[in-house]
Amino acid sequence: MDSFKVVLEGPAPWGFRLQGGKDFNVPLSISRLTPGGKAAQAGVAVGDWVLSIDGENAGSLTHIEAQNKIRACGERLSLGLSRAQPAQSKPQKVQTPDKQPLRLLVPDASKQRLMEDTEDWRPRPGTGQSRSFRILAHLTGTEFMQDPDEEHLKKSSQVPRTEAPVPASATPQEPWPGPTTPSPTSRPPWAVDPAFAERYAPDKTSTVLTRHSQPATPTPLQNRTSIVQAAAGGGTGGGGGSNGKTPVCHQCHKVIRGRYLVALGHAYHPEEFVCSQCGMVLEEGGFFEEKGATFCPPCYDMRYAPNCAKCKKKITGEIMHALKMTWHVHCFTCTACKTPIRNRAFYMEEGAPYCERDYEKMFGTKCRGCDFKIDAGDRFLEALGFSWHDTCFVCAICQINLEGKTFYSKKDKPLCKSHAFSHV
User: Fold this and answer.
1) At what angle do helices 131-139 and 221-232 cross, to 10 degrees?
2) Partner of 292 at 20 to 30 A CA spacing, among 82, 227, 313, 375?
3) Can you give the pLDDT at residue 199?
4) Which helix (H) or strand (E) holds 385?
């Protein structure tokens, strides 16, 4: 691996696109370049691994963290990259055909067909091979048989055998082991089945059994990585979250790349989360939700705020509830002193509200005997032109209760019959 450093002068765009990340369990690498862009002019190539971003180790960064790190660089972006050295071709030793082991060759047309039909691969029944393992096994020539003829091969073979899965690290450069007395359970199908070559002729399947003097050209590492990522469902686009899911705007139903906001359980582009009535962006200043629609505070007040019982205008601030109606605080006041009543007690007289102090002053009833207010529910009586508590209407001399009895009056004071002519 050849490590090197690239410095790109800003501003953005930088002319490349990332793939992979810690959240995808794939190292960060360059997936695409803009022709003539800054990255392409600096010698960056597709498939280069990203070792560091602005001096920070990129191995521990998720996809979105790497994107945010690059955006934060501003006017100067420093990348540490690593590139695989191209394999140097070596002269192959020519062997006689009778000593050359048989190899499976997948033609270019078959490779193209395999890449187009990648989505149709499924694990074989009865085996534990994953989908990506089956794709790599087919690309590297390590898969012996194809599904349609598997049952036929079992019937044509006289000796039962078990096919062991080949490790994914096998490469086409290494020749297959020669016929050195293999056990019957591990011998390849072409060694035990004489009709194997005829049955797998080019006009019957996409696999060709042939002799060749040089190994088949392996699939480039970058293409293999892309195929495995596509088969495993790995994402290569921008905007993915830490949980591996890319947010989709609830308003326009498009993938969000960059800043976004979450409200009411959905993700939105900041410019598309707007008031349903006036269209103002609701990114700041708060909002109200009513029947599935969002409103800015002014529109919500104009549409859903109650009306004041006095001035009939919309109540957009502090509200007063009284007499089963809603009021502006400054509209529900004492009739005498004009002070807002707010949460204090009040009394109604001829349909007008009064604070407690003014009501007692203007309409309050006091007992003539004790000079205290006669509250609601108190027993009282009217006599001598005044109001009395029932317990306060007594003889001024002997203090006998005169309620319901004959009494006399002298100087506006009640007297019993016994003290009717006494000096008061």
Assistant:
1) 160
2) 313
3) 61
4) none
**Residue 202: predicted pLDDT:** 53
**17 residue type, one letter:** R
Cα–Cα distances (Å) from 399 to 247, 376, 381, 419, in that order, read 89, 25, 17, 11
Cα angle 49-66-118, degrees, rounded to a multiple of 5: 60
The listed CATH number (3.40.50.2000, 1.20.1050.40, 2.30.42.10, 1.10.760.10) that belongs to domain 2-83: 2.30.42.10
φ, ψ (nearest 5 deg) of residue 64: -70, -30
Superfamily of domain 261-303: Cysteine Rich Protein (2.10.110.10)
Domains 2-83 and 319-361 share a fold: no
Domain 319-361 has CATH 3.40.190.10: no
Tokens 């605080």 appear where? 329
Q: So where are the chain's domains?
A: 2-83, 103-121+129-215, 261-303, 319-361, 365-424
**Of 73, 62, 77, 69, nearest in space to 28 by CA:** 62
Predicted confidence (pLDDT) at residue 228 exceeds the cutoff of 60 = no
Tens of pLDDT, residue by residue over 21-75, are 888 888 889 999 989 888 888 889 998 889 899 888 888 889 898 888 888 887 8
| 62-84 pLDDT, tens digit each | 989 888 888 888 788 889 998 87
Q: Is the pTM of this model over 0.70?
A: no
